[in-house]
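Hi U.,

Before I forget, here's the chain from the pilot set. I'm dumping it here mostly so it's searchable later in email.
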Amino acid sequence: MRMIDRSRLAACLLGAALLFAAATDYIPAFLDSEGRVFGLFHLDIYKDALHLASALWAFAAALISRQASIFFLRVFGVLYFLDGVMGVFTGSGYLDLSIFIDGIRSTSTYVKVASSVPHLALGAFGILTGFSARRSLA
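Structure:
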């Protein structure tokens, strides 16, 4: 029996987390009375599409090869982490174009940080697992 390598497993875990992120907007248990996910932010079809596309990229990379998984982890990790950093300071991100559409949001620091934690955490996970992997292994 062949074991799945760490990079492919990490890509699959990120894919599952991203599918969960896309699904939260459609599960009433995660929405408050104003339709905010976890009481913090609104998701829309564009953000759901971004999460779904990222999940598909993660799963495809895991299926293709270890090297594709490492590439995904590194690129995804950096993109999502930097999006989270931007969210902490502005309340908007660049991946969903909200910084260009909504600009800097006037919301509390708590909401900016709490809303950015998922991208910071997923991005950090991608960075740590992607850049700690050695490319030369099969």
